Amino acid sequence: MGRAPRFDADTLLDAARELLLTRGPAGLTVQGVVTALGAPSGSVYYRFANRDLLAAEVWLRAVERFQAGLTAAVAAPDPLDAAVRSALHVLEWSRANRADASVLMLYRPRDLLPDGWPTAVRPRNEEQLAAVSTYLSQLSTRSGTDPLRVRFAVIDVPYAAVRPALLRGRAPEPELDDLVEATVRTTLAHPTTTTQEEP
What we know:
Blueprint: H1 9-23, H2 30-37, H3 41-47, H4 51-68, H5 70-74, H6 79-96, H7 98-106, H8 109-112, H9 122-143, H10 147-167, H11 176-188
Helix pairs in contact: 1-2, 1-4, 1-7, 4-7, 6-7, 6-10, 6-11, 7-10, 10-11
């Protein structure tokens, strides 16, 4: 049986993530990972052919980890409860996964990838975006609520709640949970559908 690699993909991505959070996007480089871990450059390039693929994988892995936890929230039979649980998942996941949460809350893909998504991983990004759009659409339909209102309640509100703490390098305060839940319930308590006005 062969030996497990000393520097597996997650180890390399953890090091890249740390460089991003401490030095910013410009500091996330293949050489930076090599230096931080004392790894042979071949170990990095074997898994990530270039800096953009490395940066893309840091982002995609964080999104995949976050979206995996939404499954239980989406499964709630009552649409208002599903919305509340989805919003609270942002806070709970950010506390348990502060480094990945900081990547998603403090940066945008264009910050990491100014030239756009590498072709090899673009489908994964598109699948992740489609999953969010599908979820929001389904929640809007189930609740009979304007999609813009749903997005505000389950994305804008919890994201705004966690971002200040993450900027300070801290976990979001537990007291935020009640505030976020109250805001979501108030926002979505009375279903509304936006109608377009005649031109």
